[in-house]
Amino acid sequence: MTFKPSTWYPIAAVLSVLNLVGAGFAVGQGEPMHAAIHVGLGVAFGLWAQRLRQAPGGSDLHARLEALEIEVNNLRGELSEMQERLDFAERLLAQGQEAPRVNPPR
Q1: Residues 6+ apart with CB under 8 A from 54
Q2: Buried-most residue among 8, 32, 42, 47 (CB within 10 A)?
Q3: How many whole angstroms separate alpha carbon 45 and alpha carbon 9?
Q4: What is the pLDDT of residue 39?
């Protein structure tokens, strides 16, 4: 079974709200310690829900990073090939300038 943030986010949000409502009832009953525990749990579940909402899937992030790495390697290969072609063209142009002309223009 895989951990899916999209499944756990609503659960964490509901638990956060229920604990905050429970804190209200505990305050109404005159039990401050009980209310403090509910507030702490409500905040903890709320922070967890926020983190689940912001965090992309770990495997998705890994797959995107791997795809980016492959793309960078492809671009490096293409750049290397372009540099070789440029060097070859420069050598051809340099050889063409060194060749003596039979009838130089006047």
Answers
A1: none
A2: 42
A3: 10
A4: 94
- In the 3-class helix/strand/coil scheme, how is the chain assigned residue by residue? CCCCHHHHHHHHHHHHHHHHHHHHHHHHCCCHHHHHHHHHHHHHHHHHHHHHHHCCCHHHHHHHHHHHHHHHHHHHHHHHHHHHHHHHHHHHHHHHHHCCCCCCCC
CB-based contacts of 8, cutoff 8 Å, min separation 6: 52
Residue 102 pLDDT exceeds 60: yes
Q: Are 5 and 57 in contact (CB under 8 A)?
A: yes
pLDDT at residue 21 greater than cutoff 60: yes
Reading the block at residue 97, the tokens are 């300038």
Maximum Cα interatomic distance, the chain, rounded to a whole number of Å: 111
Please, which pLDDT band fits residue 101 given cuts at 50, 70 and 90? low
